[in-house]
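Lab meeting, item 3. Inverse folding demo.
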């Protein structure tokens, strides 16, 4: 609201390091991409109260569009909202996870989509965590993925892979070398297109200086100057053009 906006501007001058930060995001971001960023942020801004809301990409985008969240961080669904400015943060790839006794464990070096298509799959719910890239890859080969179980959370997916219910397809960042050493994890970046995680905020919203700091901690190429430039552009196509020649990190 207008009143909130005026308050934020006033507080920026009188209490620059105090306030709230509401982040709406998915389980994958909250669990794997954000912990270090948030730890560093909270150390620097002990007087900022940080609230993280987990939800579906749709709920997350909704919250940012309504102004209930300062930032939405997700891979899907943000483009459905024309009143959000969306900035690309990083690309990420997928891995296939199987039990050590699974036939695919022997094919780690030359895995194809056709190999994966022979087995029941366990992966993300549709519309979640870049799931559309998986469906696209199968369609491109004229194949139908046989998905037997879906979840919003990679830890749940890995649990069901351990039970032998299927082949897991998860974000590579969700693999932990220590706790997942009982599984065979095969890089699948040659099978599926990378996905891009974005941070979105409401057009015309006043960003506090600690908010710019948070964005840059999460995505170092998103400097305050670049974020300000992007937020002044008319539409998302122009924002996307701004980032065409900026190389994003890959996770």
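The presenter then showed the designed sequence:
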């Amino acid at each position: 609201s207008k009143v909130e906006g005026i308050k934020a501007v006033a507080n920026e001058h009188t209490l620059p390091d105090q306030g709230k930060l509401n982040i709406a995001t998915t389980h994958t971001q909250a669990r794997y991409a954000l912990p270090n960023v948030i730890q560093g942020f909270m150390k620097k801004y002990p007087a900022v109260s940080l609230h993280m809301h987990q939800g579906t990409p749709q709920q997350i985008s909704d919250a940012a569009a309504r102004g209930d969240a300062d930032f939405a961080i997700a891979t899907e669904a943000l483009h459905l909202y024309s009143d959000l400015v969306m900035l690309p943060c990083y690309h990420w790839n997928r891995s296939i996870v199987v039990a050590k006794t699974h036939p695919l464990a022997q094919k780690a070096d030359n895995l194809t989509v056709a190999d994966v298509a022979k087995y029941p799959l366990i992966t993300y719910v549709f519309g979640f965590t870049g799931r559309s890239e998986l469906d696209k890859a199968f369609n491109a080969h004229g194949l139908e993925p046989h998905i037997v179980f879906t979840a919003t959370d990679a830890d749940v997916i890995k649990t069901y892979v351990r039970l032998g219910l299927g082949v897991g397809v998860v974000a590579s960042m969700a693999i932990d070398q220590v706790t997942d050493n009982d599984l065979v994890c095969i890089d699948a970046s040659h099978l599926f297109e990378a996905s891009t995680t974005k941070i979105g905020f409401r057009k015309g919203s006043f960003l506090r200086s600690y908010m710019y700091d948070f964005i840059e901690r999460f995505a170092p190429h998103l400097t305050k100057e670049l974020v300000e430039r992007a937020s002044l552009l008319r539409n998302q196509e122009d924002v996307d053009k701004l980032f065409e020649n900026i190389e994003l990190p890959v996770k």
